[in-house]
Amino acid sequence: MNAISSPVRFGALGAVMAGFILAASPAHADRIEKHFPVQSKPKIMVRNSSGRIQVKAWTKNEVLVAWTNATGKSVVETEAAGNRVEVSTLANEDGITADDSKTDFEITVPVESELSVRTDSGNVTVDSVHGDMTFDTVGANLQLSDVDGYMVVKTIDGSLLCTRCSGKLEANSISGNVQMIAPTLDSVRVQTSSGNILFDGSFLSRGIYIMKNFSGTIEVHFSSSDSFDVNANSLKGDVINQATFKPDTHGTPHPASKWGHGFVGTMNEGHAKVELSSFSGTIKILKRD
Amino acid sequence: MNMQCEQFEQLLEQQDEGALPKPALAHLETCEACRALSADFSAIHDMALELGNEEVAPPERVWISLRNQLEAERLILDPQAAPRNASHASSGWWSVFQRPAVAGAFLGLVLAAASTVGYMSNFAQTSVHSQLAIQQETSAVPAADSIFKEEVLTVGSDSIPGLQRQDTAVTASIRRNLQIVDNFIAICEKSVREQPDNQMAREYLYGAYQQKAELLATAMNRSMPGGLQ
User: Fold this and answer.
1) In chain A, how many domains are there?
2) What does residue A202 show for φ and ψ, rounded to 5 degrees?
3) For B47-60, what is the mean pLDDT?
4) Rounded mean pLDDT, B2-30
5) A105-123: b or e for each residue (b if 16 or more CB lie within 10 Å)?
6) Which residues pair with A126 in a beta bridge?
7) Same domain, A184 and A288
8) Does A192 contact chain B (CB < 8 Å)?
9) To probe the interface with B, which of A174, A239, A258, A277 has the most B CB atoms within 10 Å?
């Protein structure tokens, strides 16, 4: 017995204690999973107050909802009826804090799915889902990647990062930033008050791109082959333009506003329509590298 | 033909400046609900004209008008218990705003005020300019929106049974963003005062009011029991 060295004994003791701690930890910290068989294009609604929500796609006709709640002070209710799956987090007792109710979700859905997500805080990520989506958040940041559909985002000060998004995007924020990287969107209506807006991608033919803020920066990147009409105006701020526009040659010519700084012009055939508007922010129209 | 309430409401919505036509006046004499509605429209219009002053509190008559309407709709059941003086409204109004219908009515008024700003942009600009330039007397009555903001944002206090505790980060976020929007409103109002024919400034002011109404609605919505449902 004495042959066992102290470090080994301490190690064994530590392992036993760790085992006790793990065994004593509440079961509700475990990951819980539920599977819902669906047909094509299900609608998934998620209501959460605090915590991370990750949505990704797979090829199965099934929705997998997995969650963890560290404290057990909130419960997750699920409801499935046909192609509709609803997931809601509810307080398990009165007066619990946001930390108590924090619940992290991992949701896997068919590629063709509709999403409706409402949460206060915690990040939301959606990857490779094709379908209409609505997001309503207070401070949660939102990351959409390789999604396709009609996306409506409403947030107070959460940011939106949209990477390789296709379809239509409506986003409204007060102080959050909105970034569209390599988009193939044919309709963009983005408004933020004090946040910045970045559009780094091509303006599609027949596309309409309206970006508006109050005090942040609006930055759009163009390539020389892009074809769009532009109307850019900042009432109190500056407009920085690296493009060579010609006067509008089609339709009724609209003069630039007599208020503030701005211009109206056309690049190539003017197939897309771009409206950039700011109250006191700077508008940048920059050539893409 | 006697005018009906519905016709009167349509007329009121379409009515620009000036006196109401005789059939409408006749209807007003006999219809208490439409009288209250007409008074509300007048109050909202007056409020919009008072945008020239930063931090201007709504006139007492707005509170009275709102209260009358709420009492008429029996949304305030014990008018004697509630303080008549709006300066004490902080506690009295809370119980009112816990009712979504009433809070919605308030937001309706905010939106109506925003609509009025848009509507005002159609007025002769010189007329609007002169009206906005009038220095309104300030009131000791606390601003309606500040009371509403505070009440909404204090939800989650343990003193209010039945309501879930609101996430402090969410409350802080809403407060911070209300401040941002309030600042924008002040800046836009200043621009409109300086350049009354600047349509762009008006549109931004209108948008800022809409944002404020939506923000308050969000705050209220998140605060209500089951607000996340």
Assistant:
1) 2
2) -90, 145
3) 53
4) 78
5) bbbbbbbebbbbbbbbbbb
6) A55, A144
7) yes
8) no
9) A174
